[in-house]
Amino acid sequence: MNGERLQVSLTDAAAEVAARVLGAVRGAEDIGLADYVDTSADLKTALGAVRLIGADIFAPHLLLDRPVHHADAAVITRSFAAFPPAGQAGTRRQQVVAWRDWATGRLLACAADPASAEPGLAPTAAPETATALLDGAKTWQEWSANAAQLSPLALPGLGGPIAAAVFEGARPLARGVTRALLRRDFVTAARLIRWMALSSSSGVGQPLDPALLVERVRLYGGTGSRLSLDLAIARRLLRSEPA
Amino acid sequence: MTTSLTSIAHNVAHRALTYLHDHRDADVFPDDIPIEPEDSDTVYKPIAEIGMAAALVLREGVGGTAQLHAARELIDFTWHRLRQGDLLYERQVRNCLLTDPIEVYCHFIHGGHHHERFERLAVHNAAVRSAPEVYPNRRLAVANAYRTCGIPTDDDWGSLLRATWLGATPPPWAIDWDTAYSVTHTVFHVTDWGGRPHDLPPDIADYLGNWLPVWTDVWSEVGDWDLVAELLVVDACLPEPRFDLDVWTRIASVQHSDGLMPRDGAPVDDDRVQRFWDHHHSTTVAAIAGTLAVSRLLGNGR
């Protein structure tokens, strides 16, 4: 399989995993992650999709208190084995990936043993890179682009230096959302709106109304399961949708 | 940073004004302006806007000898095209509710130009209080015109401002291109083109401080230089201008060597007269933006 075809099938597979998580966030019974991977014709691509969706897989657990099934947790562990976390994070992109892996690893560890607050897996992210990605000296354009790519960390109960830095950046966050909407970049808008919803639900005042923004993207052309998942998580965070 | 920005803004204004000055001839303006033109945007409005830009250069007085000299000649030229105010007078006499004559006239006062018979009409019109129904931001233009002329009115500036899109401070993402122009003009008139920045209420100044950078970024990305130049004028009208070096550098880089500021990213015509009529507005706005920015940078904090 050439690189381009792999990319397309990985995108499709990630959309499928996101659709399953979306169903669960909307109230369906289970994600059925293990079932999806075990019946997939292309195991490696399926595991890659699981790695890509990462921490979002825990959204039904964190938002609706749904259980994390052992079989699903095992699939996530297998996905790390198939696609090990990168080593030293040098580039901006690598730093973003390291933080997304950190979130997945941390939530996996907590789900496996709720008493444990420490990640049981290898992925770690250097705390100083949180500052590098989201420090106040960055332009609001750079800051919000980084925040959008870190949106899988916008989950209740995860905490950590990334969420703390986003909570400090209400203004660049709101500017980034505004810019994304005016450019009709609904994917980026939804990711940032998710951070805005988490900040708001954590008591951090926002210059823009996140509920209005969720509705705007939903009604004006936001499509795709990953975007819809970001919006569904935002809605749950804002408690604007009946459970 | 301040020094380089002052230098960039000064150069943008100087080159734009030079371009306008270089085009005040019969090739560009072959005909007299009719009292009732079929389309007032074709010659009448551009002449008025160029006169206004020259008036602001003279009002601010930060341009240096050559620039002030060019502004002086431009305002005299445009006043001449308005037949020393007779055109404005005739328009007003024929149509008593027209507001454009006073809106145009008020700027020429900065150049020392007056028309007594027109002023008597304007004083009378203000007393009659029969204003036509216009866009709320245009209503502010009329209020500012009377204020600039020193003609008393009973305008309630707070109510007039709150009737505009900007006055309602809607979500900044719910704006479009036309409304962005409305925002710019609301600010121009409330602040009298940067002459009264503190007349903007604090909530509106904060709103613009938050969202102006986003609008400037988005319309710079698509190369809408006419609107970007207008947004730079807005910045220079704020109580605390932001003076974005990056945006100033970008707009300076697209200005042509003869001073023309392209209205957008489309190719510019080679024909001297055609390119003037295509791009005189963005060039005029660039002259105003640079002039007001330099003035505020030099400490004219009002």
Automatic annotation (TrEMBL), chain A:
Domain of life: Bacteria
The protein's name: Uncharacterized protein
Species whose genome carries this gene: Saccharothrix xinjiangensis
UniProtKB/TrEMBL annotation, chain B:
Native source species: Saccharothrix xinjiangensis
Top-level taxon in the UniProt lineage: Bacteria
This protein's name: DUF6895 family protein
Domain DUF6895: 14-290
